[in-house]
Amino acid sequence: MFDFMNIMNKVKEAQAKMKETQAQLVNVTAEGESGAGMVKVTVNGHRQVIDMTMDESLINPQDKDMLKDLIVAATNKAFEAIDVKIKEEMKNATQGMMPNIPGMDFGNMF
């Protein structure tokens, strides 16, 4: 039989740890690049773009559409990478805290 109070305490503990970890995600970064590294975008765990660099050769008015496409591609890759890191950080923060209840998958909460 399950100890309901123990389970509730574990859930509250996990919630507190998750909030703490979410606040610290601002320090977790990921980078995406496109055009063989000609455009690089860095994002943080709050899903904010914090930096972007581009090769000087791309700054040409005639290549405006290509530059836009490269920036979008690099940004999307950076967001894909940070999503993986966010999930890892949240999983590590709550590892072993949640009860193992058959049929309940807490792993997809993040």
UniProtKB/TrEMBL annotation:
Compartment annotation: Cytoplasm, Nucleoid
GO molecular function list: DNA binding
Domain of life: Bacteria
Coiled-coil blocks: 4-31
One protein family per Pfam: YbaB_DNA_bd
GO cellular component terms given for this protein: bacterial nucleoid; cytosol
Primary localization: cytoplasm
Annotated keywords: Coiled coil, Cytoplasm, DNA-binding
Record note on quaternary structure: Homodimer.
Record-stated family: Belongs to the YbaB/EbfC family.
Functional summary from the UniProt entry: Binds to DNA and alters its conformation. May be involved in regulation of gene expression, nucleoid organization and DNA protection.
UniProt cross-references to PANTHER family, sorted A to Z: NUCLEOID-ASSOCIATED PROTEIN YBAB (PTHR33449)
Name this protein carries in UniProt: Nucleoid-associated protein KI659_12255
Lineage of the species this protein comes from: Bacteria, Pseudomonadati, Bacteroidota, Cytophagia, Cytophagales
